[in-house]
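Input sequence (333 aa), recorded before submission:
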Amino acid sequence: MKSPVGILAASCHLPQHKRSVEDLFREEGVNFSSHVAARLGIKQVPIRNGQASESASNMAVAAGREALQRAKVDPLTVDVVVEYSIMPQEYLVPVWNMSNKVQAEVGASKSFVVGFSGGGSSNFMVALSSAAAMLSENDSMKTALLVTGDTTIPGNRVLNPDDPVTVMGDGASAVVLQSDAPGGVVIDTELWSDGNNHDICYIPGGSLIHPDDISLYRMRLDKARYDAFPKAETLRRLSDKLLERAGLKFSNVACVLCSNISSQDEAVMQQAFEGKVSPVCASNRESHGHLQGTDFPLNYLSLTESGSVKQGDYVLGVSHGMGTTAAVSLFRY
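Predicted structure, token format:
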């Protein structure tokens, strides 16, 4: 019989310093208006201060340590470290990955590491699904540490400056999964990718072309194709399929967590999911902007702390992955 896998603890490590969206638009030479402000629904974002402690990997290490402490888990009992980072890392070469550094510095020396990239904020659900499957199917594995650290490319915080889609902040997060955890049970995950959309959102170049000059890196979005992708329809279809497999109906779902991309994006999600998107998503979006995969641990923690869900409630996490990888996860509190 498969063992249920649940979230034992989660943590977010965010820079203390924040910048207003209006200041960032001015700094990046992007036109800021009341219309754009209303469409984005983002007031400020956390930004690293340049200190070594706020590099992506160091913030990831801090988040990992705190999550393990909250879970009261000995790092030596962690079986696998799963990374779900999105942005370029501090060593722009193909052989370096922060998950190895996290493993070493949190003391998870008996684990192995694996990482996922390329799915936008859906990366968290991809990592979640993979880790949960490993723990559920393998009797020799009990605990997984999921971790990310993402720092936005300087001068590239406004995604698609000609017609802004979101404003990106810096941050890190970590989640401890464990088989037979008492709550936060990961019921199932449904994933879907469209390979034709591989270049909707990407960073041209790569470490083999200009490995040492991060100023040459810029995230680009094909806005026309991004808009054309049926985000809400795809996520609702995946959700209905997932719920049917679990023997549930959408009426059984207490609330929905989505990515913190923009108020416009959330409005579409609210319509697709019958007004069940939790208010914590809007609150975190306004004060933090889009934090890539960290959106979900942040929203999960806020939902838990809000007291608006009770034991036994079902919660959906949904992400369209900027049109590349759509993901839906079902949790039971």
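Checked by second reader. The longest helix spans residues 56-71.
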